[in-house]
């Protein structure tokens, strides 16, 4: 499993710039964004729609790249990587939890969880063992053969979390992980994320609108108009 | 097993398991490929069958002498003086002689004549060949299967089996009106499905008399001592100067005819099939574009997990190829069931009807399959590229 929390910056953004073009007009989102997150931290990012939360998460996931500045995660300089290298980095260094789970409906829960392991040189038997282990970890032991459509939203999100952690990445990125869940299911998912951070030392960055979800994090950053406005640390 | 292979396999499996969502458009792609395969296979089977029929006709040990510089019987004329000169050739000229020392030969004329069907509604154009009594013996692989051979000097006909099956008045004892006179069918002969079976044979003098062609000879068939003896015959014919003579083996004569007609069939078949293939390729492109649009969240999710662009490309491309392959299978199966062995007829040499069987050979199947597969490969390539270029950020929002 990953190393415990330290104060060394694991994620570092320096003067990151990012914008979009609408027709001929350039619309800046970040003009000089700075951020450091130490290894093992659990950071919630809140902010109104259009504040740049999802854009930031996409850049941290290597799905999008900054227009300028420096973006470092661990020893990797994502701002200098091409698409192929970022794809390979995603496969080995992070897991992602989606708001709408993004499970492949034609595959069973276990097959969905196994997907990231197909990118690693593992034998089928080893892959199956790891899938069983993480399904057990998220409380879905014995449910691997079920299809997503037969599971509740909370259970599907647990499958999503299992898929995100099955290759044991140091970094977990969560995009509104409780946004599509009822209160009870959301509580279970948040408890799971807290467990992954506290017990397994995962560094977690979570984008959310939900203050209750944010309260599970060690730190909450408020993003507005491309800038972090305030920071709250958990007691 | 390499990572890329596992990635492609996983994506392909997801693609194929999701086919139910796009069943109608996938089936339409398969059927359009099947149609292209059917059309091309149909034309090629026709050309192959025609070619096989004529290629199986004629012997390399029988020489055909044509006059007037013509290389086809229809335009040939051997003047009496030249004919006498040929038949009087002495010594070793590469031709078999009978016990009396005469060349084993048959003088022949060929013409087309219309014969009315029983209901009088249709008229078929038949090839009527007048020949000496030795003519049938000069055809290798020909056997009388019913009745008897014609009697010299009478209006009796021996009908090829292919023609007897299709044509009117082929039954033994039947009366057939050719020109202004009635003829009697006295026999039927088989020739292994070759072009001979599309002819009607009769006595040379009876045919010449009935059609006002007295004294005319268009071709002279000679039994060679062996296939290589045709050179000796050509050299010997150098002394006959009454008309420019063309000497070919009987096999060469029919092969030359088959090449021209088969090429003509292909000339029609290939452009039509290619035109349809362009349409099917557009259909495949549309199907696979729909497939990529339908799977954009799944593709984007897998890409976000770290699956490579190459895997997304190959999985989509292979899906298109597999659908095309199923279409090819359907097309080949239909072609086989519909066309193979189907009896057809066309105008052969001498503008007479010639029967032949369509043949869906291995070569026909291979060519039609390749064209069908190409529609899938070409039609699937662009959507496969599109799959690699999906904007991941937009695709991930599509789950909302």
UniProtKB/TrEMBL annotation, chain A:
GO cellular component: membrane protein complex; plasma membrane
Keyword Cell inner membrane: yes
Keywords: ATP-binding, Cell inner membrane, Cell membrane, Membrane, Nucleotide-binding, Transport
Domain ABC transporter: 11-235
Pfam families: ABC_tran
Domain of life: Bacteria
Family matches, as PANTHER family: ABC TRANSPORTER ATP-BINDING PROTEIN (PTHR24220:SF452), IMPORT ATP-BINDING PROTEIN (PTHR24220)
Protein name (database record): ABC transporter ATP-binding protein
Lineage of origin: Bacteria, Pseudomonadati, Pseudomonadota, Alphaproteobacteria, Rhodobacterales
From TrEMBL, chain B:
InterPro entries reported for this sequence: ABC3_permease_C, MacB_PCD, Macrolide_Exporter_MacB
Coiled coil start-end: none
Membrane topology label: Multi-pass membrane protein
UniProt GO molecular function: transmembrane transporter activity
Record field: transmembrane: 267-289, 310-339, 364-387
Keyword entries, A-Z: Cell membrane, Membrane, Transmembrane, Transmembrane helix
Entry protein name: ABC3 transporter permease protein domain-containing protein
Native organism: Cereibacter changlensis JA139
């Amino acid at each position: 499993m990953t190393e415990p929390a330290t104060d060394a910056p694991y994620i570092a953004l320096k003067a990151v710039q990012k914008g979009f073009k609408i027709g001929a007009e350039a619309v800046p989102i970040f003009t000089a964004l700075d951020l450091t997150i130490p290894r093992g931290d659990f950071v919630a990012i809140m902010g109104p729609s259009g504040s740049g939360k999802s854009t930031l998460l996409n850049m941290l996931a290597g799905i999008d790249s900054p227009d300028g500045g420096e973006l470092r995660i661990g020893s990797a300089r994502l701002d200098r990587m091409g698409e192929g290298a970022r794809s390979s980095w995603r496969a080995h260094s992070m897991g992602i939890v989606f708001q709408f789970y993004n499970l492949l409906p034609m595959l069973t829960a276990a097959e969905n969880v196994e997907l990231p392991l197909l990118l690693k040189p593992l034998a089928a038997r080893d892959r199956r063992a790891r899938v069983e282990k993480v399904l057990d970890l998220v409380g879905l032991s014995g449910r691997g053969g079920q299809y997503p459509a037969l599971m509740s939203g909370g259970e599907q999100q647990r499958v999503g979390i299992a898929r995100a952690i099955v290759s044991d990445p140091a970094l977990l990125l969560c995009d509104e992980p409780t946004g599509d869940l009822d209160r009870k299911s959301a509580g279970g998912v948040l408890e799971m994320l807290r467990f992954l951070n506290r017990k397994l030392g995962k560094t977690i960055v979570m984008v959310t609108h939900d203050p209750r979800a944010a309260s599970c994090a060690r730190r909450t950053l408020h993003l507005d108009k491309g800038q972090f406005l305030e920071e709250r640390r958990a007691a | 097993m390499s990572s890329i292979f596992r990635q492609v396999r996983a994506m392909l499996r997801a693609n194929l398991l999701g086919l139910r969502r796009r069943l109608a458009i996938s089936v339409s792609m398969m059927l359009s490929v099947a149609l292209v395969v059917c059309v091309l296979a149909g034309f090629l089977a026709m050309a192959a069958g025609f070619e096989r029929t004529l290629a199986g006709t004629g012997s390399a040990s029988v020489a055909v002498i044509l006059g007037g510089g013509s290389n086809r019987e229809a335009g040939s004329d051997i003047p009496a003086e030249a004919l006498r000169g040929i038949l009087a050739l002495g010594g070793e000229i590469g031709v078999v002689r009978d016990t009396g020392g005469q060349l084993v030969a048959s003088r022949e004329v060929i013409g087309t004549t219309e014969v009315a069907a029983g209901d009088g509604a249709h008229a078929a154009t038949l090839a009527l060949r007048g020949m000496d009594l030795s003519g049938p013996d000069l055809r290798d692989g020909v056997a009388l299967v019913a009745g008897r051979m014609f009697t010299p000097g009478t209006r009796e006909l021996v009908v090829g089996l292919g023609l007897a099956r299709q044509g009117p008045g082929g039954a033994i004892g039947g009366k057939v009106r050719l020109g202004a006179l009635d003829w009697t069918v006295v026999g039927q002969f088989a020739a292994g499905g070759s072009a001979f079976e599309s002819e009607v044979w009769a006595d040379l003098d009876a045919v010449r008399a009935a059609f006002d062609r007295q004294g005319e000879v268009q071709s002279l068939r000679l039994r060679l001592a062996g296939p290589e003896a045709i050179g000796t015959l050509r050299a010997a014919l150098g002394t006959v100067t009454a008309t420019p003579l063309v000497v070919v083996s009987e096999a060469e004569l029919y092969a030359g005819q088959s090449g021209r007609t088969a090429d003509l069939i292909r000339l029609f078949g290939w452009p039509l099939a290619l035109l349809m293939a362009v349409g099917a390729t557009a259909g495949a492109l549309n199907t696979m574009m729909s497939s990529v649009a339908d799977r954009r969240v799944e593709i984007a999710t897998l890409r976000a997990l770290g699956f490579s662009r190459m895997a997304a490309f190959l999985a989509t491309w292979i899906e298109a190829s597999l659908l095309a392959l199923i279409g090819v299978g359907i097309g080949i199966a239909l072609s086989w069931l519909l066309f193979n062995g189907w009896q057809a007829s066309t105008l052969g040499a001498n503008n007479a009807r010639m029967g032949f069987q369509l043949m869906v050979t291995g070569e026909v199947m291979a060519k039609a399959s390749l064209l069908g597969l190409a529609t899938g490969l070409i039609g699937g390539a662009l959507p496969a590229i599109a799959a690699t270029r999906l904007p991941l950020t937009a695709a991930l929002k599509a789950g909302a």
